Amino acid sequence: MRILLFRADGVIQPWVDEFAAVMPQVETVVWREGEPHAPCDYAVLWAPTPALLEQLAHVKAVFLMGAGVDALLRFGGALPDVPIIRLGDAGMGMQMAEYVAHAVLRYFRRFDEYEQLARRNEWKPLPAFDKREFAVGVMGMGKLALPVIDTLRHFGFPVRAWSRSHKQLDGVACFAGAQQLDDFLRGARVLVCMLPLTADTARLLDRQRLSLLAQGACLINVSRGAIVDEHDLLALVRSGHVAGATLDVFAGEPLPAGHPFWQEPRISITPHISALTLRPEAVRQIAAKIEALEQGQPVDDVVDRNRGY
Ligand code: NAP
């Protein structure tokens, strides 16, 4: 069996080594534009170029080295008709839980404000927030959102969650579909965006929807930047309606040097690191799925192109 490997960032040798360790019987072929390649059974890639698409028509399935699929689905009809399989959690859920819990606790315990006070050598206890009034709204109830929801519940936050299809989760106020979005947003003191970027979610969080959040609410975005209208968010942060934002993802990455977010002290920025692909977990998961496919069994995390995730 041959597996075609590609990463747009060129950091491919560690993947070759990992596959050699986990699937020693398999030959890996690194795809390089313009070079001839032996036919492969599967492709494992991240952020492909248009030139690679042709090659994908000949594989049994395409595996992604991440959980998001927007960078591949943007090719639309140019994509060959083979199953696309993304990573399902593979160690990313725990990282998301760490990141989101840290940000929510920072707002709830006012650590960011204490940091400012300490810098000014000020000893000044601030009134504590009432947890019962500090509801966290999680957008998305997928593989990465569920550990986040569990962790927030563990800390005793009232949790509400919104998904496309109706769900029931113990102790969580569940909302679904466009018709329940406004009600979901109205009750949130912190909004956590964990949605995939699709035609339905692009710029979903614009001025009108963000204005439905409680006065002084905070936003945490760990999924895709283009789901938030950045111009509208900045205006709402400057007006004080949104008290703070913790952003790991942006409409354009890397965030350009002159972007006004850099200058806004109420916006915290990290460089798309909230959940990194853990190579050993990823390769083990892909190997197990290839084995299942070879035995004619179904696998999880097959992307639905019509839904866009
Ligand atoms: P997932 O398992 O596919 O879950 C997606 C969730 O979003 C589902 O609950 C789905 O609802 C909901 N959803 C999708 N479209 C919706 C809509 N139009 N309205 C309401 N709900 C909608 O995805 P995941 O594995 O949790 O990953 C989520 C995203 O995280 C990825 O797509 C990726 O963009 C991002 N990500 C970011 C990083 C990072 O480092 N920043 C790392 C990994 C992933 P249903 O349950 O009803 O289908």
Structure, explained:
The chain has 309 residues and is of the alpha/beta class. The chain has two domains: 2-90 and 278-294, 3-Layer(aba) Sandwich (Rossmann fold); 92-269, Rossmann fold (3-Layer(aba) Sandwich). The chain has helices spanning 13-22, 50-56, 70-73, 92-108, 111-119, 145-154, 181-186, 207-210, 230-239, 279-294, and strands spanning 2-7, 27-30, 42-46, 61-64, 84-85, 136-139, 159-163, 172-176, 190-193, 217-221, 242-247, 267-269. The strands form two sheets. The protein has a seven-stranded parallel beta sheet. Helix 9 links the parallel strand 10 (217-221) and strand 11 (242-247). It is elongated and about 65 Å long. The chain starts with a strand and ends in a 15-residue tail after the last helix. NADP nicotinamide-adenine-dinucleotide phosphate binds at residues 66-68, 92, 140-145, 162-165, 194-198, 200-201, 222-224, 248-249, 272, 274-275, 309. It holds the Pfam family 2-Hacid_dh_C. This is Glyoxylate/hydroxypyruvate reductase A. It comes from Massilia solisilvae. Keywords: NAD, Oxidoreductase.
